[in-house]
């Protein structure tokens, strides 16, 4: 079984990273769409860390893993 996750890293005022993960993102996502969504999250103050609002994008990645369940 293959699983895919989108991880978005945001920086707070102390330059600490807060990561938001989404399971099963669209397979046709392009970097500009992810960047636009992250900029919108920052502009709208949708999320924050315990240190304050997100102030910048720290990075993003799509992670795909293969899981092989072992049956006994």
Give the uncertain stretches in residue-range form: none
State the major sheet.
3 strands, antiparallel
> Which outline best applies?
elongated
Strand content: 35-45%
Q: What does this 3D model show about the protein?
A:
18% of the residues lie in helices and 44% in strands. The protein is built from 1 helix and 5 strands; from the N terminus they run ββαβββ. It has one helix at residues 31-43, and strands spanning 2-11, 17-23, 48-49, 52-53, 56-66. The strands form 2 sheets. The chain has a 3-stranded antiparallel sheet, covered by helices on one side. The longest helix has 13 residues, at 31-43.
SSE order and pairing:
Layout: E1 2-11, E2 17-23, H1 31-43, E3 48-49, E4 52-53, E5 56-66
Antiparallel strand pairs: 1-2, 1-5, 3-4
Compose a concise summary of this entry:
By secondary structure, the chain is α+β, with helices and mostly antiparallel strands. It has one helix spanning 31-43; strands at residues 2-11, 17-23, 48-49, 52-53, 56-66.
